[in-house]
Design goal:
The structure holds two protein chains of two kinds. Chain A is an all-alpha fold. Chain A is built from eight helices and no strands. Chain A has one domain. Helix content of chain B is 76%, strand content 0%.
């Protein structure tokens, strides 16, 4: 243990400060940082991809249209239809853009030189979650009426009255506060932690193989590089999964407001 | 007795387990199956957390008013129990 610790004595693991970025250039507004730039870039890429895939559709799809239709089918069959049924097509524009934008933002975490998952700044997933939340409550009140919405939400039928006193506050808190909160935090925390893990292992590799190369530390450095590669693969899986989950939950909330009957 | 594969049932004297499996698969509607399952799976943590917050919070309030600290764990446990009961009511019945 001792030689290792001697080698490692000034190794500092990357912390939350790796998410802090200075303004892009001298005199730029303080909010104009790399994640903001990447968020805009991602939105533009999604627009460009959607445009090239769907602007001029052919009966026999080729090239970008093929890719776009595969993505569309995936979101429609796996996300929209199970939760929205016959309303699925109406909500596809929202769900498709949401899925592709989040997927791309997440994927930025492993793209060389970009290497920042946009959603690792909680403000970005919060905006999405708030949008979905507003849609959810609006649709719920529109389709079930103001009283009906809260009644369906808080009072599942067929229970003795005193039980409602115990359960209704839980339903209220769960549906209107905890659910949107976890909706945003789930995406944020996964991206934040994933980026931190990648940064840590690549830092281990860089430090022990380049900064302070010693016979004992070299093995650790190699392990760091191997782990970086392995975790990058794992992280790509998580990035996809979280984009899918966020969109799926959005569809679930919308579907729940449209059809309360279950 | 005919099994799910269409072969005569040789393994079970009554064949009931095979028929039962085939029936329950028919009863299940595949188009809503995923929705119900996902609904339950993603609502459970949210309900448990809410139960703890509502009833644990009430317990905290009571302990603050009366000075009896036991109200906090009582509230938390009550909240978890009620949330679990709520999940059972909505998805387990």
């Amino acid at each position: 243990m001792t030689p290792l610790m001697l080698v490692a004595d000034d190794f500092t693991a990357p912390g939350p400060s790796i998410f802090d970025f200075p303004p892009l250039y001298e005199g730029a507004p303080y909010w104009l940082t790399k994640p903001v730039l990447m968020a805009l870039f991602g939105a533009l890429v999604v627009c460009a991809v959607a445009w090239s895939a769907f602007a001029n559709p052919k009966l026999v799809p080729r090239g970008m249209q093929n890719v776009g239709e595969m993505g569309y089918q995936f979101v429609r069959d796996q996300v929209a239809r199970p939760f929205l049924g016959k309303d699925a097509e109406r909500w596809m524009p929202l769900l498709l853009s949401l899925f592709f934008l989040i997927l791309l933002w997440n994927f930025f975490g492993v793209v060389p030189l970009i290497q920042i998952p946009v959603a690792s700044h909680i403000a970005f997933p919060v905006v999405f979650a708030v949008v979905i939340y507003v849609i959810k409550v609006y649709l719920g009140i529109k389709h079930q009426g103001l009283g009906g919405y809260f009644k369906n939400m808080m009072f599942p039928p067929g229970l003795p009255k005193p039980i409602y006193v115990l359960l209704a506050p839980i339903e209220f808190l769960s549906n209107l506060i905890i659910a949107p909160f976890t909706h945003a935090v789930r995406l944020f925390a996964n991206m934040f932690a994933g980026h931190l893990i990648l940064a840590f292992f690549s830092m281990v590799g860089f430090w022990f193989l380049f900064e302070k190369l010693t016979p004992l530390g070299a093995g650790l450095g190699v392990l760091g590089v191997i782990m970086t590669i392995a975790m990058t693969g794992f992280e790509m899986f998580i990035q996809f999964l979280q984009a899918f989950l966020f969109t799926m939950l959005a569809a679930m909330y919308i579907g729940g407001s449209l059809h309360p009957d279950h | 007795m005919i099994t799910r594969t269409g072969q005569p049932d040789m393994t079970s004297p009554h064949g009931s387990c095979y028929r039962r499996a085939a029936m329950s698969e028919q009863e299940r509607r595949p188009e809503t199956d995923g929705r119900d399952f996902a609904d339950a799976a993603w609502s459970v943590p949210s309900y448990l957390l809410s139960g703890i917050l509502v009833w644990g919070g009430l317990g905290w309030l009571l302990s603050w008013l009366t000075g009896v600290h036991a109200f906090i764990p009582i509230g938390v446990i009550l909240g978890v129990g009620l949330a679990a009961y709520l999940v059972y009511l909505k998805y387990g019945r």
